[in-house]
Design goal:
The protein is an alpha/beta fold. It is built from 14 helices and 14 strands. It has two domains: 211 residues, Glycogen Phosphorylase B (Rossmann fold, 3-Layer(aba) Sandwich), CATH 3.40.50; 160 residues, Glycogen Phosphorylase B (Rossmann fold, 3-Layer(aba) Sandwich), CATH 3.40.50. Helix 6 links the parallel strand 7 and strand 8. The chain is globular.
Length: 403
């Protein structure tokens, strides 16, 4: 039997137990939570570290047999935004070291997520004499290309530092690997591609089917699931609806948006729908649990992912696992998550006209989109958290031996 490890999973800026679709919670949270659970299932000890953001945050026992826990660390004011955390990484790391020394049962490997946690891990590694595996999830330099000036220079500099100092980096797709090489200067042989997974028990064609939005005869049902922010692109769908209306369509798709506003308070998709005259086609709800989200996905005719970019696009894979085809922006990891022309369609731009064209095809070619949905189930089968955990364990073990 392979040697057991203690894996310190670090997600400083957002808890893996937070509800995806609100605040800073999204695909990273789903990734860390499900990978951690799969590693625990394989018999390893997980110490999952996040920043304490509420007076009620206390350690959570994840598994008694392996002594796996989620541990909130006090660092700074409870209500600090993500942008204010960079000055707290040393304090966070010092406390993390003490917790690991007290609780670890096996040789330690650090796996950090997002650049803030990467800086924490590198600081802690010096005292723990442990290797650091890092997953960026998003890159400041890449975001600045699509949205100039959106990320500060110190983030870009520190991501390059992490690329130089970490034992190994993982990328969700080959596309992300090339971005890491280009923007951080990391050697190609120190970046390993590891696809995220999907929970096939929750996200499958079988189960409840519940459409939370409006029911209009002959109107295709389109679902958007994610944070309501410009980078995720929900406004693109509203503007596409308006274009379809201008084209003279008497029956329009209905779009349901599930997620919470994140970032700019001025970004109001509901108001945009009213201004463009398509509010009757739109409905909104807060983020929901994975079980409820799966029921929404089964009821939808298509799931739309108009993000500027995604390192993978977990929502797209979850939708396909439910048998629902996907329309997604042809960018980043979405080119891996969606099999273009097989399980859905990728759109080369975020121009509302291009999205209107595809929504129009959902209306006029329903048989084609139903065929995409059937193929989507087969495509999603290749992604699982168990397979990902096995791949990560080989990386952890290799890094531990070198260390």
């Amino acid at each position: 039997m392979a040697e057991k490890l203690t894996i310190a999973m670090i997600a400083m800026h957002t808890s893996p137990l937070a509800q995806p679709g609100q605040g800073d919670a999204g695909g990273l949270n789903v990734y860390v939570k499900n990978l951690s659970l799969a590693l625990i299932q394989a018999g390893h000890q997980l110490l999952v570290f996040t920043r304490k953001t509420s007076s009620t945050d206390v350690p959570v026992m994840l598994d008694d047999a392996t002594a796996s826990q989620l541990i909130p660390i006090a660092a700074g004011r409870l209500d600090l935004p993500k942008e204010a955390l960079s000055g707290l990484t040393t304090q966070f790391a010092d406390t993390l070291v003490e917790e690991v020394l007290e609780r670890a049962h096996h040789p330690v490997v650090l796996h950090s997520h997002y650049w803030l946690s990467g800086i924490v891990a590198l600081h802690a590694a010096e005292r723990l004499q442990a290797p650091v595996i890092h997953t960026m999830h998003t890159l400041g330099a890449a975001k600045n290309i699509s949205s100039p000036g959106s990320e500060p220079p110190h983030r870009v500099e520190r991501e390059a530092y992490i690329g130089a100092k970490a034992s190994m980096l993982t990328a969700n797709t080959a596309v992300e690997k090339q971005e890491l090489i280009q923007h951080t200067g990391v050697d190609a042989d120190r970046v390993l591609v590891v696809h995220p997974g999907v929970d096939h028990h929750l996200f499958s064609p079988e189960g409840a089917s519940q459409w939370p939005g409006k029911h209009v005869p002959r109107s295709p049902k389109v679902l958007f699931a994610g944070r309501m922010q410009s980078f995720k692109g929900p406004h693109v769908l509203v503007e596409a609806l308006a274009i379809l209306r201008q084209r003279g369509h008497r029956v329009l798709p209905v779009v349901h948006f599930t997620g919470a506003m994140s970032g700019q308070n001025r970004y109001d998709v509901r108001e945009r729908a009213f201004l463009l005259g398509v509010a009757e086609q739109c409905s909104f709800s807060p983020p929901v649990s994975p079980t409820v989200l799966a029921s929404y996905m089964r009821a939808a005719d298509v799931v739309a992912v108009p993000s500027v970019a995604e390192t993978f696009g977990l929502v797209a894979i979850e939708a396909q696992a439910c048998g629902t085809p996907v329309i997604a922006h042809k960018a980043g990891g979405l080119t891996t998550a969606v099999a273009d022309g097989v399980t859905g369609q990728l759109v080369n731009s975020l121009a509302p006209q291009a999205w209107a064209d595809l929504l129009e095809s959902v209306m006029t070619q329903p048989c084609q989109w139903q065929a995409y949905g059937r193929a989507a189930i087969r495509h999603a089968q290749q992604f699982s958290w168990t397979a990902m955990a096995h791949r990560m364990l080989r990386i952890y073990t290799s890094a531990a031996r070198v260390g």
